[in-house]
Amino acid sequence: MKNQDLLQGSCLCRSICFSLSGGITSVRYCHCSHCRKFAGTSPAAWGMAETANLTITTSKNQVGKFNSGRGIRCFCTNCGSPLWFASIEYPQIIAIPLGVLDNDQLPAPEQHIWTQSKASWCCINDKLPQHPTYPESAQE
Ligand SMILES: [Zn+2]
Ligand SMILES: [Zn+2]
Fold first, then answer.
1. CATH of 3-132, one of 1.10.10.1590, 3.40.50.10490, 2.60.40.3080, 2.170.150.70
2. Tens digits of per-residue pLDDT, 78-102?
3. What positions does the domain CENP-V/GFA occupy (predicted)?
């Protein structure tokens, strides 16, 4: 395993720390209303990874879980930081908010998804592909 493929992540209070082997496979911006609430801003920048590669290195006791419909949104019950999104439809894939990763060397975002739900105050200032909903190409 290459050194840069082992990523570290943590919540604001560091009650929850985790490691991620295998790296982030792709990055997308999500404009959906659920991600907007979960992240407290929009778009939410998500890094995709394999669920099996995520290891919680601290206690799991403070991992809160909320089922938002299509998946389980996990967060720290002490500080409120988002931690990850576990899809129900694609359980082998986990989405991690880029802001909880402690590494700066991450892949560049590739696309915007759910732009039909975009907030009026959010401006897209790049030339990345925009998808109104969830495209086939986002499933990896
Ligand atoms: Zn915390
Ligand atoms: Zn979303």
1. 2.170.150.70
2. 999 999 999 999 999 999 999 999 9
3. 7-115
Residues near ligand 1 ion, CB 5 Å cutoff: 11, 13, 15, 76, 78-79
Output the CA 80–ligand 2 centroid distance in Å: 18
The ligand that comes nearest to the alpha carbon of residue 15 is: 1
Mean pLDDT of 127-139: 87
| pLDDT at 106 (0 to 100) | 93
How far apart are alpha carbons 74 and 65 in whole angstroms?
5
Cis peptide preceding 43, ω within 30 of 0: yes
Q: How much is the CA Rg of the chain, to the nearest whole Å?
A: 14
Neighbouring C-beta atoms of residue 46, cutoff 10 Å: 24
Cα(51) to ligand 2 centroid in Å equals 18
